Amino acid sequence: MASLNRCLASLARLNLTAPARPTTTPSIPKFLLPTTAVPVVRYASGGGGMRKRPPKKKKAYKTFRSYDLSPMEQFSLCDAMRYIRAFEVGRPPAVVKYEVSIKLKTNKSGPVVRNRIRLPFPVKTDTRIGVICPEDSPLMIEAQQLGAVAVGENSLFESIRQGNIPFNKLICHADSQDALKKANLGKILGPKGLMPSQKTKTITTDLKATVQELIGADEYRERSGVVRLAVGQLGFTPKMLFDNVTALMKLLQVDINNVDDSYTKALDEVVLSSTNGPGFSLNGDFLPADETLKPEDLQSAM
Amino acid sequence: MVGVIRRMNHLTELVRIRNGPGAAILPQDVTRIHMDFAHKINGGHMGPRKVWRDSLPRLKYWNPTIPMVVNRSDNQDGPATLSIYFREPGATLASDVPMPSSSAEGFAKAPAPAAGERVLTIDMKERRSEAILKEFMDKSGAVPVKTTPQDEALLREVEDRKATGAIDRERIRQENEAVKREKQMIAQAHSEAAAIKAAL
Predict the structure, then answer these.
(1) Of B3, B59, B64, the CB nearest to A67
(2) pLDDT in 10s for each residue of chain B, 200 residues
(3) What is d(CA A184, CA A195) in angstroms, rounded to the nearest whole number?
(4) Pick from A213, A220, A239, A252: which is nearest to A99 by CA?
(5) Alpha-carbon gap: A86 to the closest alpha carbon of chain B (Å)
């Protein structure tokens, strides 16, 4: 039966005369006619289809992100010290350091805060200074008397090229400045942060003043909107640490005020941390919240 | 700098230093504590090390005035001792009793007791940290600190966060593995297709 039907259908298609079109227009308006659902076929090359959008641009922020600090638990200096001393119990007190991270409200571009500070209670005591000055001059003897571990000009350059660097600070007398430029040591000294320059005040005419400034002085600089510096050893008393932190904050405020007014720069948050401990956001107070605890209780041997 | 929320979560962990084994207040007559053991765990030094890492911070938090000095040395065969120094009843100690600072090189040997002081020594070698801590609590007369309701709530919060974190970590691990597997399969298919092409 099925085969017969198929046969008839093929015969019907063979009809040469097409059936006449209906000439009478239907009396109902066109929009009321039942629409026959004709599937719309789309082709990839057909122009239509999904419109390609350009990839979304990430919003570029001009400033470093600044957080709302209201949910942040903040501590007084003594409270933070109590926790840190508990975390660091049994560690060598001269090795473990207190550190502060000071977050600034600042633009990503523009000037950065950078300076050198002599803390009231020095943290590092292993400063070894190298001095570049004309050889066989009175300056050389002066530098040696000031306690420089390496002194000289061409002989010193040669030993630096051979990788013999016994110093961790290097200064240059203005008389040797041209020789230093010719020596081409930027590739070796630059990455170590030892290259003398006017900017860091390590090219000088007064060796004595510079050496004295370098001994016991710490450099700090803003990186990614944060200034980080070691401000104390674990063995410090609360008063010592307080003095160091206040000295740093005072100098930093001066630095910030010196920045041109067209750039935004302000203090945002101060966090005290230690070598192995967590970070404690400071609220600016000194005395502990717990009244039974006195600052003197936090200075026993560690 | 790290965001506020993540740092806050880290700080709620402080509840663990206020509570737990070792959170105890020492009696008035304990003057100082000294521990002596080796850097590594072999030779029976695991228990002492655990006491130092886990319990001593809690003890130090609740007794900030008492010097607690740890002497670690490289000598794995050496002794492992915990010394508790007591004030003799009625005696007054000099204000500046010399006390060495903690050392990681074995330089801070246990000092001899000062005038008016006596020492009680616990041998920690080849013992578990729980046993050492129990003996310490019994012999020193330390009173464990009771957990406050606020701290209990915080502890629960920390536990909850750990549990959800574990679930999330597992999910992410599976997702990462699926991506990795797919990449591997595509790479294998590519290499096989290249081999067939080369053979033709």
Answers:
(1) B3
(2) 888 888 888 888 899 999 999 999 999 999 999 999 999 999 899 999 999 999 999 999 999 999 999 999 998 998 999 999 999 887 777 777 778 888 888 888 888 888 888 999 999 999 999 999 999 999 999 999 999 999 999 999 999 999 999 999 999 999 999 999 999 999 999 999 999 999 98
(3) 10
(4) A220
(5) 5
Tokens, residue A155: 């002989």
Write out chain A residues lying below 8 Å of B13, CB-based: 278
Of A89, A300, A301, the CB nearest to B56: A89
What is the distance, to the nearest Å, from the Cα of residue A74 to the centroid of all Cα atoms in its chain?
Answer: 22
Question: What DSSP string runs through B138-165?
Answer: HHHT-EEPPPPHHHHHHHHHHHHHHHHH
Q: Quick one: CA torsion of A278, A284, A290, A296, rounded to 10 degrees?
A: 90
Inter-chain touch A93–B69, beta carbons under 8 Å? no
What ipTM does the predicted assembly reach?
0.88
The predicted model scores a pTM of 0.73
Dihedral sign, CA of B156, B162, B168, B170?
A: negative
Q: Are strands A129-132 and A150-152 parallel, antiparallel or unpaired?
A: parallel
Instruction: Please give, rounded to a whole number of angstroms, the shortest distance from the CA of A244 to a CA of chain B.
Output: 22
Identify any residues that bridge with B83 across adjacent strands, giving them in sequence order. Answer: B34, B121
Q: Where in chain A is the domain with CATH 3.40.50.790?
A: 126-215
What gap in Å lies between CA A169 and CA A181, rounded to an integer? 18
Please give the CATH architecture assigned to the domain spanning A72-124+218-302: 2-Layer Sandwich (3.30)
- Residue A189's CB is within 10 A of a number of other CB atoms, namely 17
By a Cβ cutoff of 8 Å, what residues of chain B touch chain A? Answer: 1, 3-5, 7-8, 10-11, 13-14, 17, 32, 35, 52, 56-61, 64-70, 72, 99-104
Contact check, Cβ <8 Å, A90/B14:
no
Contact check, Cβ <8 Å, B7/A72:
yes
Tell me the CATH number for domain A126-215.
3.40.50.790
Torsion angle in degrees (nearest 10) through CA of A239, A244, A250, A255:
-170
Candidate from A71, A92, A225 with C-beta closest to B104: A92
Q: How far is A43 from chain B (nearest CA, A)?
A: 28
A-B Cβ pairs (cutoff 8 Å, strict): 89
